[in-house]
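JOB MANIFEST
job_type = single_chain_structure
chain_count = 1
residues = 106
[input]
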Amino acid sequence: MKKFLCAGLMAHALFCISANAADAGAAQALAKKSGCFACHNVDKKVLGPSYKQVSAKYKNDTGAEARLLAKVKTGGSGTWGDIPMPPNAHVKDEDIKTVIEWILTL
């Protein structure tokens, strides 16, 4: 019985890991398609902060997702330096939300 339980738990864990990897891949593809990688990178600053810097800054901020969605949609400046982020009104809210959720997991 223990063998079956352990096997079931392992299968579930592998499924969850692969599902999260697929979600991360889809979110990264959305970010590339939307032009986000022109100014950002996962682990190094380009024109804007790296996604890992953004994740670290907002790690314990429960309202970060909503604020970042608004900032990405309308643009902003001053948080990360003098270079403003242009508005991204052409990107669907659902796509922005998916990318932000991914960034906040880094």
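[summary]
The chain has four helices and no strands.
The two ends are 37 Å apart (CA to CA).
exit_status = 0
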